[in-house]
């Protein structure tokens, strides 16, 4: 088994927000924490991929502009 250091993260929610999330998690997840973590990790992966696409696009633009200006 892999030892992973555990870190606590606190999230303040209104009662309505918590109820909404609990309703979404009900029946499919062991608990609210598992639901929130899976959802946040999925969205974080999307954001990282979008950021990388932007970086790649900017680098491509820089290469193109450099090529046009030097020839």
**Number of discrete helical segments:** 2
Tell how many strands the DSSP assignment holds.
0
Mean pLDDT across every amino acid position: 88
The H-and-E topology, N to C, reads as HH
User: Main sheet?
Assistant: none
Strand content: under 5%
CA radius of gyration is 21 Å
> How helical, in percent, are the residues?
over 70%
Helical/strand content category:
mainly alpha
Question: Tell me, what's the shape?
Answer: elongated
Query: What's the N-to-C terminus distance?
Result: 57 Å
Uncertain stretches:
none
What does this molecule look like?
The chain has 71 residues and is mainly alpha-helical. It is 70% helix and 0% strand. It is built from two helices and no strands. The protein has helices spanning 15-25, 32-70. The longest helix is centred in the last third of the chain and has 39 residues, at 32-70. The termini are far apart.
Summarize the structure.
The protein is built from 2 helices and no strands.
What attributes does this structure have?
mainly alpha, elongated, 2 helices, 71 residues
Write the layout of secondary structure elements.
Elements: H1 15-25, H2 32-70
Helix pairs in contact: 1-2
């Amino acid at each position: 088994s892999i030892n992973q250091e555990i870190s606590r993260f606190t999230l303040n929610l209104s009662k309505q927000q918590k109820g909404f999330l609990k309703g979404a998690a009900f029946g499919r997840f062991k608990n609210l924490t598992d639901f929130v973590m899976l959802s946040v990790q999925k969205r974080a992966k999307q954001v990282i991929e979008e950021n990388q696409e932007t970086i790649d696009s900017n680098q491509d633009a820089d290469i193109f502009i450099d090529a046009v200006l030097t020839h």
